[in-house]
Amino acid sequence: MNPRTAWHRVLVTVVVAFLVLAAVLYAASVLLAPADGRNTAGLFVGWAMFAVIGAIVAGIVDFFVRPLGGRSGDADVLAAAEEARTGSTRTQQDRGAAAR
Q1: pTM exceeding 0.85
Q2: What is the pLDDT of residues 3-23, one digit of tens each?
Q3: Which of 8, 9, 29, 55 is close enough to 41 for a disulfide, judged by CB 3.0 to 4.6 Å?
Q4: Rounded-to-integer distance, Cα 77 and Cα 86, Å
Q5: How far apart are CA 60 and CA 7, in angstroms?
Q6: Which of these, 86, 24, 11, 75, lies nearest to 3 by C-alpha position?
Q7: At a CB cut-off of 8 Å and minimum separation 6, what does 28 contact?
């Protein structure tokens, strides 16, 4: 597997984990607000906001790490199937040949 693809998958997992953590912390703040008071709820909301910021930062890093060129994940499978069917993965004619 391409190292860029591996990093992309790790970073997407980190983003999802941060978002789930933020949702859990926010739900905990709502549940704890009546029982333990406003300070405890505010603490959990603060941690939830840090989790959302972490997800945003990981998403920005992932934007620059992800594989470019449209040949990642399922695109590799589709390209292999196209090559098996037609013997080539070309989807356009060569521009030089089209101009002649």
Answers
A1: no
A2: 777 888 888 999 999 999 999
A3: 29
A4: 14
A5: 13
A6: 11
A7: 44
